[in-house]
């Protein structure tokens, strides 16, 4: 706990005392620390690809100036690193947009099943490339909640993309909609969407930290798959804005299930 102490003398003609006020600064200081950590993380994440690009530019201007083969190879790597920076900046912008509106609950009438059908359609080529079968269940009709269409599309895109990336080639990713469920942590009936994969799973100690910005279980693998480490942080913020819950269950060697629980109103 961090306290700021404010003392003020009060003196009148026949009375003198000192008032002392204690101000709890814990939250303010924690927020300051988090901001500093965040800036350090962003700088580190951007500096790595930037350093690579600068290094290749120098090589192309110097020793490899006349080597056509090296030029093509280096340009390819520079393109990859630049796209990576672009993804990080895009995700940071999404995160800051959601955070800026976090107190305003979205009020559009949104059909979650229709969103899931379009997410599955647009991720089908990626799933095919990774040799993963996408199965959508219970989304034939229309399941409406109060929400933000673009943000919920981003939530399900991130979760299904992760399930494809980390779920293992040759396996199945299932997306299942359950309407009017009673969830332990929700007051009224809710809509639940389970995104389940059959991958390696996630060890229990990592689960509470998965939604922290830039937290990855295996950084190398995440980078290889084009990850930024911000996907689940964005998911968590959007779900909070919808007054919903994100539940993560995972068993090592058996796979993971990310459940999005949304109130109807
Ligand atoms: P990334 O861009 O690295 O995928 P995310 O924020 O989306 O970032 O996810 C954070 C980390 O959580 C990932 O790096 C990965 O280690 C882990 N993770 C996310 N989804 C899954 C999943 N379905 N199976 C196993 N690990 C996962």
TrEMBL record:
Q: What is its main location?
A: membrane
| GO biological processes | cellular response to phosphate starvation
State if Membrane is listed as a keyword.
yes
Alphabetically ordered keywords of this record: ATP-binding, Cell membrane, Kinase, Membrane, Nucleotide-binding, Phosphoprotein, Transferase, Two-component regulatory system
Task: Identify a single GO molecular function assigned to this protein.
Answer: phosphorelay sensor kinase activity
Per UniProt, subcellular location reads as:
Cell membrane
According to its UniProt record, the EC number is 2.7.13.3
Its catalytic activity? ATP + protein L-histidine = ADP + protein N-phospho-L-histidine
Q: What class of enzyme is it?
A: transferase
Q: Does the keyword Ribosomal protein apply?
A: no
Q: Which domain of life is it from?
A: Bacteria
Q: Name one GO cellular component term.
A: plasma membrane
Q: What is this protein called?
A: histidine kinase
Species this protein is from: Celeribacter marinus
């Amino acid at each position: 706990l961090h306290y700021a102490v404010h003392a003020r003398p009060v003196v009148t003609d026949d009375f003198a005392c000192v008032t002392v006020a204690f101000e709890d600064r814990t939250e303010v200081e924690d927020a300051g620390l988090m901001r500093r950590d965040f800036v350090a993380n962003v700088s580190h994440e951007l500096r790595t690809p930037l350093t690579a690009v600068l290094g290749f530019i120098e090589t192309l201007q110097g020793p490899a100036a006349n080597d056509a083969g090296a030029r093509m190879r280096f340009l390819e790597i520079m393109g990859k690193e630049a796209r990576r920076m672009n993804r990080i900046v895009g995700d940071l912008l999404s995160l800051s947009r959601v955070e800026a509106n976090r107190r305003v609950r979205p009020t559009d009438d949104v059909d979650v099943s229709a969103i899931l059908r379009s997410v599955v359609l647009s991720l089908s080529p990626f799933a095919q490339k990774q040799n993963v079968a996408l199965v959508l269940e219970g989304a034939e009709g229309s399941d409406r909640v109060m929400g933000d269409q673009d943000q919920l599309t981003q939530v399900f895109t991130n979760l299904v993309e992760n399930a494809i990336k980390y779920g293992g080639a040759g396996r199945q990713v299932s997306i299942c909609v359950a309407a009017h469920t009673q969830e332990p942590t929700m007051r009224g009936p809710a809509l639940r969407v389970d995104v389940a994969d059959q991958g390696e799973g996630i060890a229990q100690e990592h689960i509470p930290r998965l939604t922290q910005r830039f937290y990855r279980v295996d950084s190398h693998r995440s980078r290889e798959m084009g990850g930024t480490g911000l996907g689940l942080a964005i998911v968590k913020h959007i779900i909070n804005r919808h007054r919903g819950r994100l539940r993560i269950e995972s068993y090592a060697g058996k796979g993971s299930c990310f459940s999005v629980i949304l109130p109807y109103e």
